[in-house]
Amino acid sequence: MTKTTRNSAPAIEEAFHRHYAAIWGKERWHQSLYPALAEPTRYAALVNGYADFEHFWKAIDEAEIPRDELTELQFPRHRPDSQASSDTDVAKAVTNNSLVARGIRCFARATTENSPSCQAFPPPKAFGSDPAKLLAHWNLDAASALAASLLDIKPGDAVLDLCAAPGGKSVTLSQNLFPSYHATHSGLDAVELAGDEATGRLVSNEADGRRQKRLAENLRDYIPPQFLKTGYIKCTNVDGTSASASALAAGKGGYDKVLVDAPCSSERHIIHAHLKARATGGSAPEMTNWRPGSSKRLAEIQTKLLMTALKAVKLGGSVMYATCSIEGLENDGVVERMVREVAKERKKGVIRWDITVGFGDGLDGKMAQEALEGWAERTRHGWIVLPDHPRKGKWGPLYFAMIKKVGA
């Protein structure tokens, strides 16, 4: 660390706090949000349905974690508008768990004063009885699984994960595509799918070459090999901000669902790196390189990625935009930039479609409050999961907004 860096680090840290206190309010930032972000990240265990479920429990038992210490998380899902037409319907749906995402199984460890939220799950491992040696679970922030579950993937959907590395969300998205293959047939060389499953596809894309290589390795660890061999699940290396993004085409009509988990400021990572370096008298480059204006440059990239996703999705399809940033410019700000860009391209005649923002009657309004308030808080155009949420889940941060492509 140079003398200049050492001298500038306190000033940058002060500017960092000043910037985010202005966004979230001084009291909340200093008393709850920053302390929550500074805590170790809480992880949940996403169970891989393509591996034997008992292998997950075997990993838990080998780690000497009491099974009664685990709670299965219930993720809300996006229902069609017609399924709930009144407040009474909404209340019944929540009570009966018909708003709960199917096919995605995720467990968290109980939190008490004696068992903090940062307690780890064991590292994923494969067991000898699985012919494909698939890993039984993926450790991730449950907010990531929440965002993926809200896309409500169904068998037969064509799905694009535009910024997929390291792969946790792709693995989550894949769980509902081929349910008949859960924990079965993983040793077969071919896929014999019937019904809706036969048209299902997942393209898992990453622009950075090194990260894409790691993504491909992770998919091989979790996905039955026949899906990768036959192209039902692909791992691609395309820059989603460039003209070459047309290579992501899903064929006639485009994708049914697209996830854009965009690269972002990732403030929690900055905070953790800073605190770790400061503990040994050093300075983390993540903090010393931070500038208030960085979000403006990132927002340009994020908007391009979101526009690529909208052009790739079919009419009537959905795009989930997500970041792990707490900066409004990268969240609601990007959605607003996208709305302006769509309006501009429509006026020029470049595109002949429009968009709507939000979950519609299915998860907006009363249903949204009932289904999501236990996880997140509303923003202007979406939701954000924060670790100081009153329900004390300690997940996040994760911002997400749903955009639907509609006819003009």
Automatic annotation (TrEMBL):
Coiled coil: none annotated. The keyword S-adenosyl-L-methionine applies. Belongs to the class I-like SAM-binding methyltransferase superfamily. RsmB/NOP family. Keywords: Methyltransferase, Mitochondrion, RNA-binding, rRNA processing, S-adenosyl-L-methionine, Transferase, Transit peptide. It is found in: Mitochondrion. It comes from Teratosphaeria destructans. This is NOL1/NOP2/Sun domain family member 4. InterPro entries: MeTrfase_RsmB-F_NOP2_cat, MeTrfase_RsmB-F_NOP2_dom, RCMT, SAM-dependent_MTases_sf. S-adenosyl-L-methionine binds at residues 163-169, 206, 239, 261. Residues 71-406 form the SAM-dependent MTase RsmB/NOP-type domain. SUPFAM superfamilies: S-adenosyl-L-methionine-dependent methyltransferases. The active site is at residue 324. PROSITE patterns: SAM_MT_RSMB_NOP (PS51686).
